[in-house]
Amino acid sequence: MDQDFHRLLIDMAAEVHEAPEQAVRHITEYARTAVKGEDSGIMLAKAKGRVETFAGTSAPVEIAHDLQAELDEGPCLDAIRTGASSYLVVKLPDARWPRWSLRARDLGYRSTISARMEAAGRRFGSLNVYDTREVAFTRADLEVLELLASHAAVAYANAETNVNLRVALDSRNVIGQAQGVLMQVYDLDAETAFAYLRRISQTENVRLIEVAQELLRTRSLTGHPGLRPESAGP
User: Of 88, 101, 128, 159, which is the most buried if we count CB atoms within 10 A?
Assistant: First the structure.
């Protein structure tokens, strides 16, 4: 491992834990630098088999990713979906992905490598590097990309956790404010006020946060005539 790559790993590891959302986007640059590629991008796996480009170093990267989604074939897609976790393409077109590889070649790409982003058994997407040269990458480059992809997966998982925590904290604050309104207007204690909000949520099959948001917006209970605060307790 050369000194520059060692330093890159140290910088990236620190960013993964200190600023994970920023790290995920920066990893495309780290990857391109580490294997001396021309372009790089992250393809994310979404619900119902959909994919999207989370970050890319150029517009052609996004087009190459979109084409894989459109044609339902390509190395980045296969790295996410199949048993193989990475792919080395030394020359395009490639018979494994006949339609996509021809279109990718039209974009100017001649070789590419892809590695799955996976952490704790969950597949988040793939980290991919492209080049306009044939045989631009080696098996050693692919091993480097696999290492970076594992860092990218951890960063994305951390970023996702941070977002979920922020949402949870925001929800808790809104629900607490709604409780406060009920306590003030109806002279309720905190437990009874929360029980009232929960009863509306369960009876009307509406999320608790939405009930709280409505109460704060309208400052009114007219939308729930059959459920009065005084009946909310156990």
Answer: 128
